[in-house]
Amino acid sequence: MKITLSQLSFHTGNFEGNTQKIIDAIHTAKLNGTDLIVFSELATCGYPARDFLEFKDFIAQAEASIDTIAKHCVGIAAIVGSPRTNPIIEGKDLFNSAYFLEEGKVKQVTDKTLLPNYDIFDEYRYFEPNKSFQVIAFKEFKIALTICEDLWNLNDNPMYITTPLDELIKQNPDFIINIAASPFSKTQIAERRNTLQGNAKKYQLPLFYVNHIGAQTHLIFDGGSSVISSNGEVFSELAYFKEDEKSFEIQKENQLIIQALDENNALKLDRNKYQDIEDALVLGIRQYFQKLGFTKAILGLSGGIDSALVSYLAEKALGKENIWAVLLPSQFSSQHSIDDSIALVNNLGIKHSIIPIENTYQSFMSTLEPFFAGTSFGLSEENLQSRSRGVILMGLANKFGYILLNTSNKSELAVGYGTLYGDMCGGISVIGDLYKTEIFELCVYINREKEIIPNNILTKEPSAELRPDQKDSDSLPPYETLDQILHFYIEDRLGPSQIEAKGFERALVQKILKMVNMNEWKRWQAPPVLRVSKKAFGPGRRVPISGKYLY
Amino acid sequence: MKITLSQLSFHTGNFEGNTQKIIDAIHTAKLNGTDLIVFSELATCGYPARDFLEFKDFIAQAEASIDTIAKHCVGIAAIVGSPRTNPIIEGKDLFNSAYFLEEGKVKQVTDKTLLPNYDIFDEYRYFEPNKSFQVIAFKEFKIALTICEDLWNLNDNPMYITTPLDELIKQNPDFIINIAASPFSKTQIAERRNTLQGNAKKYQLPLFYVNHIGAQTHLIFDGGSSVISSNGEVFSELAYFKEDEKSFEIQKENQLIIQALDENNALKLDRNKYQDIEDALVLGIRQYFQKLGFTKAILGLSGGIDSALVSYLAEKALGKENIWAVLLPSQFSSQHSIDDSIALVNNLGIKHSIIPIENTYQSFMSTLEPFFAGTSFGLSEENLQSRSRGVILMGLANKFGYILLNTSNKSELAVGYGTLYGDMCGGISVIGDLYKTEIFELCVYINREKEIIPNNILTKEPSAELRPDQKDSDSLPPYETLDQILHFYIEDRLGPSQIEAKGFERALVQKILKMVNMNEWKRWQAPPVLRVSKKAFGPGRRVPISGKYLY
């Protein structure tokens, strides 16, 4: 039997486009002699469809897509992920299902058992968990069909009381198929492989895995679909960060024999963390713009490392002709900020403009003079500069059809070291899930062959340049220290005494954690952050604003 | 036996404060001869604690609170809601529990069975559902103890496959206790009563119900704890929108006899929808400020109805000495906008300032002149005016320690008729869950005895005044029509053909739904919206930005 894994990019809610893409892949695969083609989780409607799933109209369109696709499954079978109406009155109204389509119709349906409901996942919001288990008989094979999270219950502290393959294995399946929508994070590729390998090894069965590829607002799906041998070794892997397809011949003799049918089946399992992050962010930017129907990005260049990195990534994603870098110097801006920015735009070949904010800032100051008189220069004046920049950038974006890229980093988002409605503006936050130290490391990686991001930007001391001779280190500990504490708190969710036990001063830990919690109100209004860690700011991290924990 | 229902306001994460409040209530009740005092759901940690629940340190503090409280339960028993570590390795790490405390220790624990995971609820994110049922024996009574959602599975399309009281009833309980954190909406009081009455009637048992009171960022808990007789009639109700406590004597003869022990037990079941909404919003503002440690609010007064209503509510919540109303007229502002605003601030007795935006707007225009030259006045220029206002208001707020109140209404938030980083600024959106037509109705109600909101504000045609002679109706259908379509789409989640079937033109429905969906990116960055409907913008409504559904 010939099986084809089809790793495609879908657009949430675009039933016409998604359905056509699936049908085209089925036709091509059929011409190539494929017996069974496998698509990813919730392929018809895209993932995550979020509250669109609560519209009967939306579900009706998904179910109509399945009917349409089924008609094309003649002489070929397909597995397609799609939501399904729960026929039982008790329980949630939907299942997250994998349709097995054959002979022009729905032959069998498998519903998802384990519904992730942590971090960015909300599946229990919509779906009823499956409670019955049945392998799929196709040709001489019995297939244990599972959906994404169904494989993720193997660790020491399992989140679910049921493990689907423990049930399915009783029916002696020949191999496992898993269709998934597993988003990227910088630790996810290793963890995912580990999980897939763990399942193959535990059940001594080969595993065919098809993941989503593409970006949906803040989430980036990296693909990396794969075939794992029954001994737990990776047999084949599809591309990361792009659409791909691979076919395999399966034969049942004493044991199952799998043969790769594509010429290029050389395994390259080594990953470079920085290349993966770069590829993920480029994909995230590109699809955000594509899916919203935009082509052009504008951003403010400060002369610092954050906006330099975002310029580089945006150029990669959208092309140099589509990036507009704007320098917005003030009286506090240093000459090197301008020089370094010019060097950067020259290296990238992108358009730039210089728009001093002196006049607008002074206009705010004179407008507010009757009230501010007698007060000293402080945070309010700093914010006025930042907000002058935000308004100018948004003015240009609105006038000429650009999306403003936000350049906040995770360290500053965490401690509130940024101005709401100022430098926190933007349609999407590109590097808001990278700590400052990671940004330095990524820039060094980007410069590995030639100086793309001017070295001076990497070596000078970070400064917001909102008052004379300001340095980030005036009010923050060194980023090496800050980022470690933040990582323990945000990613690892350790409490103050646990972090202190890692070797940090109590007062410093308390100060940092308090800063994080008391700035929750700012992050509520931050743009969507492209997620590249296991815990990004945004829908994956839900914290009360008016709480009193740790501050 | 004397039972006391204690309806208190808790502060998320403030274990010290919450614990002390509970202990004080226990001591007072004991002095009054109470045998059993009942507190609301998750009382120790506050509701909703959201992702703070993922911190072991947070849970340890909740468990320590229970230990502390238990020591005070000598000669009196208490039921206290608190999270509990799941002792079983499989499944989620926590239960949402009701502790039964007696003789200085934890005598029994009941875990929540039905975990709401829709709208603003995320309980399955944290908690494992209970699967075993045991009544609590106390004195001569058997108590069926349940937690909030446990009672909410009686409708025609039940969301859960288990109904806890169907299990507990087998053990012949004498009455039901339910501890809850049930947030307010304008339809919730009736629905909640209906649900409580339905349970009492179905199981033929009296029901003692204790709800949260207080506001947590966007959520308002209205209290309204109650006692329902076994025939389904409301026997007694505690106050709405404030802390309250009531005691009852229960005697077991042929049937259970309940006697109200407070003097003021006259039932006033009639509710006024507008008074409830007003009380809810006032409580929402007040506690948002209190819990963040702020006292003073600033807002922009446009001369329109939205900012007028917010001024009125803010004055009620914070006191006239704490409100600063700022008029920010432009060249497009009409004289009546200024006159009406002045009349309003005089009626309310609040401070006002007039700060023309002409200079800052012109400064942006001249700064952008090299780019804007040759283009015609449009949305970009409108936004510059709105953003000039936002920056000035935020400047004053930052300088003098005010929180800026957002004045967006639900109709304009829905269709994107507002400027991000302009009039969408603010720490909290006060009326963002009220459609424009509801705002008119509420203002008429507020003016029922005397003219508080100047009549001219209620009668003139709505206008953003961002260009000459602009009216909202230039680009939007009449609010009566718009709001109906929006309600069908947002609250009722009807699709386009279902809404069309309600009697609206297809083209209009498509236009409105498209406007809603294509403005999702703006709402992502909107402030928290005080929730008064069953579907507010914010965490209760999760919609993709880069989707392609209905646009």
Task: Please explain how this structure is put together.
Two copies of one chain form a homodimer. Chain A has 16 helices and 20 strands. With 551 residues, chain A is of the alpha/beta class. Chain A has two domains: 2-268, 4-Layer Sandwich (Nitrilase/N-carbamoyl-D-aminoacid amidohydrolase), CATH 3.60.110.10; 275-472 and 520-524, Rossmann fold (3-Layer(aba) Sandwich). In chain A, the strands form four sheets. Chain A has a seven-stranded mixed sheet, with helices on one face. In chain A, strands 6-7-8-9-12-13 form a six-stranded mixed sheet. A five-stranded parallel sheet of chain A has the order 18-17-16-19-20, with helices on both faces. In chain A, helix 5 packs across helix 11 (436-446) and helix 8 (358-372) packs across helix 9 (379-400). The mean pLDDT of chain A is 97. At the A-B interface, helix 2, helix 5, helix 8, helix 9 and helix 14 of A face helix 2, helix 5, helix 8, helix 9 and helix 14 of B.
Pair of chains with the largest interface and how many residues each contributes: A-B, 98 and 98 residues
Q: Overall mean pLDDT score of chain A?
A: 97
Structural class of chain A: alpha/beta
Rg calc of chain A: 26 Å
Cα distance spanning the termini of chain A: 62 Å
Assembly annotation: homodimer
Please report the first level of CATH classification, the CATH class of the largest domain in chain A.
Alpha Beta
User: Count the helices of chain A. How many?
Assistant: 16
Number of domains of chain A: 2
Number of strands of chain A: 20
Under CATH, the topology of the largest domain in chain A can be stated as Nitrilase/N-carbamoyl-D-aminoacid amidohydrolase
Instruction: State the fourth-level CATH superfamily of the largest domain in chain A.
Output: Carbon-nitrogen hydrolase
Profile the largest sheet of chain A.
7 strands, mixed
Beta content of chain A comes to 15-25%
Shape of chain A: elongated
State the helical fraction of chain A. Answer: 25-40%
